[in-house]
Amino acid sequence: MPGSVPASGEATWPKDVGIIALEVYIPAQYVDQTELEQYDGVAAGKYTIGLGQARMGFCSDREDINSLCLTAVQRLMERNSLSYDTIGRLEVGTETIIDKSKSVKTVLMQLFEESGNTDVEGIDTTNACYGGTAALFNAVNWVESSSWDGRYALVVAGDIAVYATGSARPTGGAGAVAMLIGPNAPLAFDRGLRGTHMQHAYDFYKPDMVSEYPVVDGKLSIQCYLSALDRCYSVYRSKIQAQWQKEGIDKRFSLEDFGFMVFHSPYCKLVQKSLARLVLNDFLSDPNPNTESGKFSGLEAFREVKPEETYFDRDVEKAFMKASTETFVEKTKASLLLSNQNGNMYTPSVYGCLASVIAVHTPQELAGKRIGVFSYGSGFAATLYSLRVTQDATPGSALDNLVASLSDLLVRLDSRRKVSPDVFAANMKLREETHHLANYIPQGSVDDLFPGTWYLTHVDDKHRRQYARRAPWIGQFDHGDRAHPQSGKEDAVTITNGEH
């Protein structure tokens, strides 16, 4: 067929293309969800139990999408001792749009100026929470294409998730995740195994260009998310079973074949329901499920249910949440560390979940596992794909280095500053009133930021933004070091739109 790959074509592709390094940035301030329940006057447990959230990170007016991505990219490069001329492609995934023309990627190119490297492909990708995954696929596809020149690709997903006062506000959050992409990766993409579903819906969208706040149809959004999960899982399962058949492997694919399963996490309880949803899919697709014992025991009454009629069926949800309890603890619970403690990061959300899995396991516990990844973005776009963890968990290996680089995630979470709900509300009000103002100097305290964080210093009368960086810790980027901060004064380097 025209466009088909020759039989020998696969042998020429780079081996084990995937994620080599991964860096997470979270804000230095958070609000406690229990205190927020009391402040909002809602029932105790509405946010903590009903949504599964404990803390929510947030940004003052000192941070925007450019500063978040500057911080994540520079931190990844420094912690991995990488020169900027080793990067041949830079992709950004975000839905936090502050300019309708100028991309975040072009702002990040200022980090490359000292290296002299301007030969860097890629640009921003936007579709709600799916933009980070689309950017990641673009980077992987570039490395596996005839355009690849042997250098790394770099992907950064970042967002600031804020909502108007009301029931959606506790599902906010903020952060960025940067990923280094190349061959011989410790987290390699399973080639040819992607199940995608795209459809039109107005479940969550941002039509007001002068506001940070989205328009949300909560019930429809849950239905879209779960229906996309059903479809993506079905397509993925068909593709992997076809691969197995070609390889002479005679077995059915099920959730048990994933060592870990991570999801885009708007809030933790939806992830738990989603894991239960995959167990429902396995149950309905199994020609002979054992309902006498094991995880399907007692579920015979649900044998004839139609998935599309069960999105809000409490009996189905309760039964399969119970049936999936052990599987959830084994495969997914660890992935919710960042989501529970920092909230929804939008495009980096699912990659924050991936980072959480890596951060709380040893290289030996991760080695050889297949990790399922479900990414969803409203509007809507979704993909379920998988990563294979390398078998090499020896000291100094790529996997060992990746785990070591995320080993301080718990320390970083615990080192944040808790603020009262009224301070949080005041920050949200300030962002609301000053969003997109020209000739504006941010009011937030630089001292509230982590060392090494880029921040906004000024927006001039032509909307051009200027940034500076807080001095990093001495030894901040040495793996495992518990370094001490320098003074809170900014670095000597200040970034503007196009100039050092």
Characteristic key phrases:
31% helix; nine-stranded mixed beta sheet; globular; disordered C terminus; 21% strand
Amino- and carboxy-terminal Cα gap: 52 Å
Task: Give the helix/strand class.
Answer: alpha+beta
Per the principal axes of the C-alpha atoms, what is the gross shape?
globular
If you average the pLDDT, what whole number results?
Answer: 92
> How many β-strand runs?
17
List the strand order in the largest sheet. Answer: 5-4-6-7-1-8-13-12-11
Low-confidence stretches: 477-500
Task: Report helical residue fraction.
Answer: 25-40%
Instruction: Please give the largest β-sheet.
Output: 9 strands, mixed
Strand content: 15-25%
Instruction: From the alpha carbons, calculate the radius of gyration and give it in angstroms.
Output: 22 Å
The number of distinct helices, counting runs of at least 4 residues, comes to 14
EC number: 2.3.3.10
Family: Belongs to the thiolase-like superfamily. HMG-CoA synthase family.
Keywords: Cholesterol biosynthesis, Cholesterol metabolism, Lipid biosynthesis, Lipid metabolism, Steroid biosynthesis, Steroid metabolism, Sterol biosynthesis, Sterol metabolism, Transferase
GO molecular function: hydroxymethylglutaryl-CoA synthase activity
